Amino acid sequence: MDNIFLGVDGCRGGWIAAVIYCNSFITWEVFRTIQDLWSKYGNPPLNASRILIDIPIGLVERGFVSRECDKLARISLKRPRSSSIFTPPCRSALYAKDFEHANQINRKCTKKGISIQTWNISKKIMEIDLFLRQNLYLNRYIWESHPEICFWAMNHKKSMKNNKKSKAGINERLKLLKSWMNKCEISIETDIFSSDFSSKEVQIDDKLDSWILALTATGLVGNLRTFPENPTFDDQNLPQRIVYPEISL
């Protein structure tokens, strides 16, 4: 089956993937690990064409210069949505036994601390980092993106007004997504508010985040662009870029 596009977001149950099949319909699945996801969608007969994932790819190991993609994304989103762009830890800090030690390592390597929010997703950052370093060719298929940047791009480069976990924020994002799904002529196979997954595994904002990434991945909304336009690479040859759609409809 050709033309399968995935948007992937971390969730309590592991990873939630919004899957768009042949530019015609979307559905959701949960995977415990990224390897489980790739085992299903990275091999025949499925062979996903592109996977956009909301997790930092390409880390700063040491030095005082932050990732350019994070800087440009924050500038575009502006406050308060810019706070959704976390600066990832340096690679060494990912292996710390707790937040305090991770903070110490990061300050030693980069002169900067890390937030508790960043520490809370550090295991997922490490999972993706290890997976891609062991399979560098997958950088042709798995790209870093960010839901709030994609919402910004599809909203005429205006950030969402409300927090994504609030009722107003959910409705705001859902309205925009449904509008673009109609324009792209993609149907929704399941009710976004259905209880397909336990709330202990998946929250409604996880579904919305993976959804916007999958829609972006299709290229139907617009050609893919990156922050920065010419991506930098880390010392393991992983690209440091955030993908978003340049609106064409």
Number of domains: 1
Oligomer: single chain
CATH fold description: Nucleotidyltransferase, domain 5
Q: What is the mean predicted local confidence, pLDDT?
A: 95
Helix and strand run = EEEHEHHHHEHHEHEE
Give the end-to-end Cα distance, rounded to a whole number of Å: 26 Å
Secondary-structure content class: alpha/beta
Number of strands: 8
Could you estimate the helical fraction of the residues in percent?
A: 25-40%
Give the biggest beta sheet: 6 strands, mixed
Radius of gyration, taken over Cα atoms and rounded to an integer in Å: 17 Å
Q: Beta fraction of the residues?
A: 15-25%
Order of strands across the biggest sheet? 5-4-1-2-3-6
* Total helical segments: 8
Question: Based on the structure given, which CATH architecture is correct?
Answer: 2-Layer Sandwich
- The unreliable regions are none
Overall spatial form? globular
| CATH class descriptor name | Alpha Beta
Description:
This protein is of the alpha/beta class. It has a single domain, classed as Nucleotidyltransferase, domain 5 (2-Layer Sandwich), CATH 3.30.420. Helix content is 36%, strand content 21%. The chain has eight helices and eight strands, in the order βββαβααααβααβαββ. It has a six-stranded mixed beta sheet with strand order 5-4-1-2-3-6. β2 and β3 form a beta hairpin.
